[in-house]
Design brief:
Distance between the termini: 102 Å
GO biological process, one term: translation
GO cellular component, one term: chloroplast
Main location: plastid
Radius of gyration: 48 Å
Pfam family, one: CFAP77
Keywords: Ribonucleoprotein, Ribosomal protein
CATH topology of the largest domain: Ribosomal Protein L3, Chain: B, domain 2
């Protein structure tokens, strides 16, 4: 059992010089592997020789002190004794006779028989405290304390080569000194430090210039990576925004609208969002209309993105009530007829399903139309926000997907009654390059042209929404005057804008004359 729990200061680091493993509190250890019986006999023999002729029977503590003084105990027994009786550890510089006299004087002092004048008390105190090492420090036994327990002995009987304990200076000691041997943790820590130091020394001795001869690495020092280095350019700003990380495929492709523009009752009712599908990119030539700019009345070429936007169908009206914790749904009114492309959205496997979605709800319009009107009237009376449920007509696009994308769009402008009437009225109601857009096809429906790029792949559904704030900058309010839209093929190097231009330039081809 180690003594780390009983130490003063609890040695945890090998940076403090630990005591030598061959000493215990100033007493040299005996490397003895004898049995218990032999040790006990040595112990008794030592005690008898130490107190022979004294006429008094030695106590157990004095017996142990004598055995320690003569060195007839093993290292383990000496450590155990020093842990149990730290106050009675002997001074190795004292002889047996001096110790015997010191103990006798101490006993007299304790009984009150030797208390006389001040000088006699001082002398008795010095002799009595000579054998006490771990008591409370005082000016009387300071010399003996420093001689035994301080780290760097100046005039010690052990010699300069056998220093045991760290220097404690003027610290008052009440308990035991640190371990007489290093702990396992301190030994491992010291080994790791020595290994790191040796590694740094070996790295500094290597020829760095032979490993990497580029001039920009000359100031890096000995920590140059010796193996194959990556092509990352560290001395330049990174490329791309960190806001788009992680760059991976999304789980839900349709964009979510977290907030809608602020409602203005003075304007007529209108929708605030739309959905379109990304077809591809091309470029246009336009004339800049920005007075005061160097590009005013000059032509510029800009990249644009084409979004195919077939008409959306409104299939429901939702009323919301404002509460202290946010909006709460009041009621929802669905249209009478729902197409299969929106009903597919409510099934995971349309082929294996019974296709019963909204069949019972559709009977309300024919059997009890009054209930539908009551729900619409509730929205007019109690709702604070009106939104519509609209879906895309994906069957009009040249896509394999058959499930329509559904979106909730807020109706802004006018009173609540006007919004409900506007939503109810909506219920159920060529830029192509040569060869079409790669990985998309030909755009046959309505389309939207946006300046610059749009995030996402081809065929990705894109959610468009009115801006939350009114734009007032001149660049945003500039009138767009398009002069040219590139319709050349996007596969390879397109040279022709139209099919007629291609046939006129190439002439009759054998492939076109075949029947």
């Amino acid at each position: 059992m180690t003594l780390i729990k009983h130490c003063l200061g609890k040695v945890r680091s090998a940076s403090v010089p630990l005591p030598a493993p061959t000493h215990v509190y100033g007493c040299r250890l005996q490397k003895d592997d004898e049995g218990v019986r032999q040790l006990m006999s040595k112990w008794q023999e030592a005690s008898q020789r130490a107190f022979q002729g004294s006429g008094t029977r030695p106590s157990w503590i004095r017996n142990n002190i004598a055995a320690l003084q003569h060195g007839h105990l093993t290292a383990h027994d000496q450590r155990t004794y020093s842990m149990q009786h730290p106050r009675y550890l002997p001074d190795p510089s004292l002889t047996i006779l001096q110790k015997k006299n010191a103990m006798g004087k101490k006993k007299k002092t304790a009984d009150g028989k030797a208390r006389g004048d001040a000088k006699g008390d001082d002398d008795a105190g010095d002799d009595a405290d000579a054998g006490v090492i771990f008591g409370r420090r005082s000016g009387k036994n300071e010399a003996s304390m420093k001689q035994i327990i301080q780290g760097h002995f100046s005039s010690s009987a052990l010699g300069e080569e056998e220093r045991d304990y760290p220097l404690i200076g003027s610290r008052i000691t009440f308990g035991k000194m640190p371990l007489p041997r290093p702990t396992k943790a301190s030994v491992l820590l010291q080994r790791n430090k020595e290994a790191e130091k040796a590694k740094l020394e070996t790295e500094s001795q290597k020829d760095v210039s032979s490993l990497w001869r580029m001039p920009k690495w000359s100031k890096i020092g000995p920590k140059v990576v010796e193996e194959i280095m990556s092509h990352r350019k560290f001395r330049a700003p990174r490329h791309g925004s960190l806001g788009f990380l992680p760059k991976k495929r999304t789980k839900k492709h349709r964009g979510k609208i977290r907030s809608f523009p602020k409602d203005d009752p003075a304007k007529p009712p209108h929708l605030t969002a739309f959905m379109a599908y990304k077809a591809g990119m091309t470029h246009v030539v336009r004339e800049v209309d920005r007075s005061g700019s160097k590009m005013h009345k000059k032509e510029v070429v800009e990249a644009v993105t084409i979004l195919e936007a077939p008409p959306m169908k409104v299939v429901g009206v939702v009323g919301y009530v404002a509460t202290p914790t946010g909006l709460r749904t009041l009621t929802t009114v669905w249209a009478e007829h729902l197409s299969d492309e929106i009903r597919r959205r409510f099934y995971k496997n349309w082929y294996k399903s019974k296709k019963k979605a909204f069949t019972k709800y559709a009977k309300k319009w024919s059997e009890a139309p009054g209930k539908v009107e009551e729900e619409l009237q509730r929205i007019k009376d109690y709702a604070d926000v009106v939104r519509v449920l609209a879906h895309t007509q994906i069957k009009k696009l040249n896509l394999r997907q058959k499930k329509a994308h559904i979106l909730e769009i807020q109706v802004n402008g006018g009173a609540i009654g006007d919004k409900v009437d506007f939503a109810k009225s909506l219920l159920e109601k060529g830029i192509n390059p040569l060869g079409g857009f790669p990985h998309y096809g030909v755009v046959n429906e309505d389309w939207v042209m946006l300046k610059g790029q749009v995030i996402g792949t081809k065929k990705r559904v894109i959610t468009l929404r009115k801006s939350l704030r009114a734009h007032s900058k001149r660049a945003h309010l500039e009138e767009i005057n398009l002069k040219f839209i590139d319709t050349s093929s996007k596969l390879g190097h397109g040279r022709f804008q139209t099919d007629e231009e291609k046939h006129k330039f190439l002439g009759p081809l054998a492939s076109r004359n075949r029947v």
